[in-house]
Amino acid sequence: MHPKLSINRGFSAPVKVVFKKADYGFLMSHDSDGFNRYEAAQTLALQNMIGMAEGKEEDGRFTEAFGEVLNDKEIDLMSKALILELPGIDMLMQEQKPAEIESLAGAHERLMKILAAGYEDEMLRMYRQLNSMNSSIDAESMAQRAMKNCLLAYLAELESSYAEELCVRQYYKAGTMTDRVFALRMLEDHYGDAAEEALKDFYGKYSSYTLVMNKYLSIVASSKRNGVLERVKKLQSDAVFDIKVPNLVRSLIGSFARNLKHFHDKSGDGYVFVADKIIELDTVNPQMASSITGAYKSYDRLGVYNKKLIKKELERILESDGISKNVYEIVEKILTAENRHDL
User: Fold this and answer.
1) What pLDDT score was predicted for residue 339?
2) What is the mean pLDDT of residues 57-61?
3) DSSP assignment of 47-84, as one string?
4) 207-343 has which fold?
């Protein structure tokens, strides 16, 4: 076997190296440098999902290397959980222009399902080994929880009755808030009926704790399930929400604006809703309004159809009476940058 080049060993910095001959599958499976192993996994996963979004078949090199990492007993659990976590849709958007959110989100979900189905037995066995009521905060216990929840995220994608049972059991039996919130998020993403029951339970237990309710609002607003915008709108009138409290706004409105799958829905309803909230918030908290306006900064990376929908809302914000300088400048920069690229 020829030697494989592993560059930038021991080096972790925000740089992007273009190396066409890199054997990312081999590096992901065998590199002894933890950072390079992680980078190889992220790069290969990104390439795989971009290809799938553009109609190509799933790349078997990544699936095979994923299995090597999953079954490698020499890697510490925290590192393994990080390596096995797929890059998010936000990362995919940076690699595709114009970015087609619907196809990118679909590719992400399909790859999760492929990996879960391919390594279902191993994942289930490891999950059961790691699942405990341990609430310790030492490094080893935290690593076990990170790996366990990584596995649960994959298994939940199968949307099977036993995976639903795992999520339900972890939610109700959790020894830490980390485990409970993660299981609740998996239920909300994949198992609607069970999610409604668990959300009621969570609300009943913690509705008097504002910090915990931030998690509750974020889980609903970040959901993968259909109908999330309607649920977000309904929560605005809930007793736990107050538009004058920045953290609550960030958790509900801000989380929805970062929910790329639903914010960028082709109906344009997400764009209209967030624009309405920016205009409303600007009279209460201009700093928070300008922060949420940042959700539209991906405008220049999107396809013509989505850009047209966003532009309409950005122009509506600019035309609003008494719009703050903060919001005005952000919107103007977004539109100006797009106009520069059109020249």
Assistant:
1) 55
2) 90
3) HHHHHHHTTPPP-HHHHHHHHHHHT-TTS-HHHHHHHH
4) Zincin-like fold (1.25.50)
